[in-house]
Amino acid sequence: MHISTLTRPCAIAMWDFSWLERRWEGSGYEDWARALDGLVERGYTAVRIDAFPHLLSQEVAAGVDREWDLLPVWNQHDWGAPGPVRIASPRRSLVEFIGLCRDRGVDVGLSTWYRQDTADSRMRLVEPRIQAGQWAAVLDVVVAEGLADSILYVDLTNEIPLPTYSPFLYANWNSTGIESRATPRMRDWITAAILAVRERHPGFDYCFSYAGEFMNPAGQDVSRFDLLELHIWMCSPEFSDFHQRIGYDLGASRFDPAGYPAMQRAEAEYRQAPGHWRGFLEAAIDAAATWSQTTGLPLVTTECWGPINYRDWPMLDWGWVKEVCEHGVGRALMTGRWKALATSNFCGPQFRGMWRDIDWHRRLTTAIKCAPLADFTQVGAR
Predict the structure, then answer these.
(1) For 3-370, which CATH superfamily applies?
(2) Is the pTM of this model over 0.85?
(3) Which of 142, 208, 219, 328 keeps 20 to 30 A from 95, CA to CA?
C-alpha cells in the first residue's frame, strides 16, 4: 500500500537504523519476528526503517552481500548502537525484514540516516544523481523480490539538510551551520534527486523528511513530492525554549553525558505550565496542516510530539511523555491531513518503559486508524 492510495490513516513506528544495528541479545531487535509481532500487538500497521542505500548499492554493484562496520552516530541515545557495530548485509537483511513485515500486514517506509561506515562511503554523494542511483538500486532489489506493494513511501534523506545525516551536502565536515532548504543549491539537489529516482521507479511515493523550516515554508520547493514527512516536537528549538529552560544542550547531546541529567528537569518544567508548552506543539501541528492544505500533499509524521531525546533512565518518567504525545496525536487527527502518524519517537522495543504500556499504544493506534481523512484532490506533482 502506498501513501497516495491510503483511504484511512495508518499508525506508523520509527525503527530507523535500530532494526539492523541493535541485534545483540536484549537490544530489542535480535528477533525480528518477535519484535514485529509486538508491533502488531500494539496496533501499528507500518514501520519506517533505514534502507542503507549507500551500502546496499555497493553490494548490488559488486554482486556480493557483505558485512559492514559502522561508527556510532551517538553513544547517549538508544536508537542504533552506542558503539562500533558490525551489521549484516543490508541487501539480504532488507529483503528478509520486508518479507516478515508483509507476512504481518505491516507496510514499510524506507528512509536513510546515512550511517557512517569505516570507509565513510556516504561522502561519495557529490551530486544528486549519485543519491538517486543508490536509491534506484534499493528499489531494484525491492521490485525483483516482489516486495514493491509493501513500500509505503521512500524518504531519500532523513531530516535534510542536517549535517548529522547528510554531511555530503557540506564542504566542511565540522561546519555547525545548517543551510536553508530554500537556497537554490538545496532546492536544486532535492528536486533533481527525486526526479532521477522517479524516472527509474515511477511507481513509488517520494519525499525528503524535514525537522524544521515548516513554520514558515516560503521558498521551499516540494512540487515533486508525494507527501510531506515533517518531524514535530513540543521542544523543537525552532520555536520553543524548552531545552534552554532545563539546561539541555541538544547540539552536544549525542556524546555529552550531561544530557540526561539535564533531562531529569524536564517533567517539572512541563508540569509548571503544561498548557504553555502544549501551545508550542499545537502551533507546529497547525503550521504543518496549513502547509499540507496549501500544497495538497498528505502528511506523515514518524518522529514527534514531546521530547526529541528520552530513554529509560533514573528519574525519567514516561507518564508526562505519553501525556504530551497523546495530546499531539489528538490535535493532528483533528486536521484530517495525516495519512500516517506515529505515537512518539519511542515506538520500539528498546524503550522498555514506553513499549510495555500496550494499552496506551492500542488506544492511540486505534484512534489513528479510525480517524477521518480530508479529501486529497492532489497528491503532489509527478
Answers:
(1) Glycosidases (3.20.20.80)
(2) yes
(3) 208
